Amino acid sequence: MARLHSSLVVLLTLTFFELRLANSSPIAWTDWSPQSPSPETYTSIQNTLSLFSIAYDTKQLSLLDQVFTPTATTNFTGNAVQSGVPAITDFLQSTIIPGGSQHASSTVHVNQTGPATANVISYLSAIFFGSASTQGLAYQNFGYYEDQMVKQNGKWLVQNRVIHNYGGIGNISVVPGAS
Ligand SMILES: *[C@@H]1O[C@H](CO)[C@@H](O)[C@H](O)[C@H]1NC(C)=O
Ligand SMILES: *[C@@H]1O[C@H](CO)[C@@H](O)[C@H](O)[C@H]1NC(C)=O
Ligand SMILES: *[C@@H]1O[C@H](CO)[C@@H](O)[C@H](O)[C@H]1NC(C)=O
């Protein structure tokens, strides 16, 4: 009986989770023969991706010029494109909430297409924390980043970033303006 009960709880939890993420669009790659980067290139790319999360979560957006090239473009919301570090910074600044956030970029896959070019996929999981009337609540967002990266002056930087958003779980009222 206890076992049936816990199976039901698992099933219901999974069903709920799937329903909430119903707008998911699984990664569909057709070419599964990417070119592997050297360990140094992989580490350097991962370091740049991590710096994005740290810059955002610690609200030090001046670090973004070590993440993006001066002519970088981004598409965070699916319906708007930002061009150049100042526009990217302004957009991100407008999305920072008082309660703060924690971004994790994981499952980093690098497809190196040349000595100084790479297509990079990394999974995104971002948790946003409530404050004031939403204190104690949280909203967690899932998806992945698709980055075109280039090596400039010895550093791997993002030239183009598109976010593929799967949706999220938790209470969206934590993130004002989102729905
Ligand atoms: C790797 O990059 C090449 C060149 O852009 C592209 O044709 C291929 O689809 C990519 N493969 C993966 C798995 O990303
Ligand atoms: C932004 O990215 C989404 C995929 O997340 C894509 O469907 C959309 O066409 C892109 N929008 C622009 C303006 O590039
Ligand atoms: C989310 O939190 C707000 C503020 O506490 C509350 O009014 C609302 O009912 C909550 N929504 C859900 C779906 O729990």
From TrEMBL:
<protein>
    <recommendedName>
        <fullName>SnoaL-like domain-containing protein</fullName>
    </recommendedName>
</protein>
<keyword id="KW-0732">Signal</keyword>
<dbReference type="Pfam" id="PF13577">
    <property type="entry name" value="SnoaL_4"/>
</dbReference>
<feature type="domain" description="SnoaL-like">
    <location>
        <begin position="40"/>
        <end position="161"/>
    </location>
</feature>
<dbReference type="InterPro" id="IPR032710">
    <property type="entry name" value="NTF2-like_dom_sf"/>
</dbReference>
<feature type="signal peptide">
    <location>
        <begin position="1"/>
        <end position="24"/>
    </location>
</feature>
<dbReference type="InterPro" id="IPR037401">
    <property type="entry name" value="SnoaL-like"/>
</dbReference>
